[in-house]
Write a structure and sequence with these properties.
single chain; 4 strands; elongated; four-stranded mixed β-sheet
Length: 79
């Protein structure tokens, strides 16, 4: 049996991404752009007889970036 090629559309801290196994395609600014890209790749593969699917993963909770402590190892330039 042929393995199904899966394109996973996932939310990342920087935007949306299309993942295939452990690899990632170009990041996208919107979910719709990522879905459009993944669907076009899947459709091209299907036209050549390859089984392909697009999976939209649920948005995971992304931890906010940590706040800087206000301490720096560099001296301020304006003091």
């Amino acid at each position: 049996m042929t393995e199904i090629i899966s394109f996973r559309v996932v939310k990342e801290p920087y935007g949306w991404a299309v993942r295939m196994r452990q690899g990632m395609m170009t990041p996208f600014h919107s979910r719709s752009m990522a879905l459009r890209h993944a669907n076009s790749f899947a459709e091209a593969l299907r036209r050549h007889g390859e089984p392909a699917e697009v999976i939209l993963e649920e948005v995971r909770s992304i931890d906010p970036p940590s706040q800087p402590s206000g301490r720096s190892r560099f001296r301020p330039l304006w003091s």
